[in-house]
Amino acid sequence: MNRTPGNKQFYTTIMVCIIWLIFCIRAEAFIEREYTLQEVIDASTNIVSGIVTSVDKKRMRAIVEVQENLKGKSDFKQIKMNIAVGDTRGKLTSPQMMMERLDNGLPIIVFYQKEGRNLAALGYVSKPALERSEGTWFQLFATDQPNRDDVWWRHTHIEAYMHRTFNGTTKNLQKIVKDTLVGKMWAGVSENAVKALVLTGNGAKPVLSQESTGTATATAEFLTLKKFDEVNWNNVAYQETKDRNLPGLEDAHILWIGQREIGNDGYHLSKDTEDRIKRFVEKGGVVILSSQDSDPERPCGDGWSPESILGVDGQRRSDFQIVDSSAAETLFQKPNVVKSGQIVMDDTWTNWSKKYTVLATTNSGKDIALAMLKRGQGMYLITALHNATEQDVKANATLMENLIHFAVNHLSRYQDVSRILSRKAQRKNEQVSKPSPAHFLAFPSAHKLSGRAP
User: What is the chain's alpha carbon radius of gyration, rounded to the nearest angstrom?
Assistant: First the structure.
């Protein structure tokens, strides 16, 4: 089995890469990777909020008065922006378009990275008239000077794709950044949202390629999951964590255990975490165990489940056989039709308790590809998916979406209806546009897997 590098130097290199990717892309290039807000926060040496105090339409310049340091202590009382030098790229960006988005009195937030005298920044601003649509992300660069009044930040372009990171009002973004910096989970998420805690990042590499959907700290598995942000008019908000102690579990409705999180070079869940997972399900939570990693001499443990099941070493495969079950038919058909040969699996499950409902098998019926175990008001969904790479996740995305839909529909039937049930009728009557989930899980504005909105 292939192993994920875990040494300190590897992750140090990754953080250097993300800082370069976010802040140091050439002026003519858009940021096409999908960043989480947490990644932008982590890559910033400083985050400031302020007010636009001067807009010179003729010279295409604007000045921001810095009012609050959200991260770090900035040496700048003002951020002077030279918009006129910005790039023009058709209908996506131009200095004129940027100036249209700036007015006196508008709140603004600037994330910047300082390295020596080099300053590179992402700004965000939104107009009140655009509160139900996206604001504007834009790039700035500057060279630090002893006299900060002499520093003019050069505008390069509007970031056409960064609305996937956040899409809302500037004041809301400021609040979310503050909450995130103090460790609040699901910052900015509605009380009515279905909350999914995603354990990921220990067993799978972050995505780094130029064509990737994410970047250096978010895994392809997480970045794909957060696209499934609406199920039958229920908003679904995702919170990622690398902490196997599962902080925030009691506030979640769904726990997604990602690639190689419970088993990778050994079993990793403590007895306390196992017990909390079992209580979580008893009280109505849904656990989706997407994969495990076993070696012949070290099968995966099952202490997270009240019933016995054995995780075993397997071979990469895509074939499965659906067992005659209505649940299996739903999981492989709604909202996506998933057929044998279309997904990627690896290590599987065997020697299962008869209390599991086997939905699909592989390896000539010897191993589980997908099973369900109901317990109390909750349930476990156990799969043999292999989500190690972007390509693997892309192949498995349709079934991953089906699993989330199945879980949310289960919650709608069995959990507290005052918090979870659909608000479909109310939202139809109000005709309100759905905001992106306000959290650092990349705020998707599009639900389609293949869509790339400009």
Answer: 23
In degrees to the nearest 10, what's the CA dihedral of 441, 443, 447, 452? -100
Q: By residue range, what is the domain housing residue 173?
A: 8-179
**Is the pTM for the entire model greater than 0.90?**
no
Domain assignment present for residue 242? The answer is: yes
User: Is 152 exposed, middle or buried, given 0-12, 13-18 or 19+ CB atoms closer than 10 A?
Assistant: middle
Choose among 371, 376, 379, 329: nearest CA to 352: 371
Rounded Cα gap, residues 76 and 310, in angstroms? 58
Does residue 64 contact residue 77 with C-beta atoms inside 8 Å? no
Secondary structure (3-state) at 257: strand
> Which segments of 164-308 does DSSP mark as H helices, in order?
170-181, 220-225, 271-282
Residues 147 and 239 grouped into a single domain: no
Give pLDDT tens digits for 391-450: 999 999 999 999 999 999 999 887 553 343 444 334 444 444 343 333 333 322 222 222
Give yes or no: residues 120 and 42 share one domain: yes
For 298, which DSSP code?
Answer: B
- What beta strand segments (E) does 93-178 contain? 107-115, 118-125, 136-143, 152-158
**What's phi and psi for 117, nearest 5 deg?**
-95, -5
A 10 A CB-CB count for 101 gives 18
Q: Is the pLDDT of residue 315 over 50?
A: yes
User: End-to-end CA distance of the chain, in Å?
Assistant: 39
198 and 263 belong to one structural domain: yes
Q: Pick the last residue of a domain from 179, 205, 222.
A: 179
Q: How far apart are CA 112 and CA 117, in angstroms?
A: 12
Residue 44 lies in a domain: yes
Segment 102-142, tens digit of pLDDT: 999 999 999 999 999 999 999 999 987 644 456 999 999 99
Cβ-proximal residues to 312 (8 Å cutoff; 6+ apart), any chain: 294, 299, 300, 347, 348, 349, 350, 367
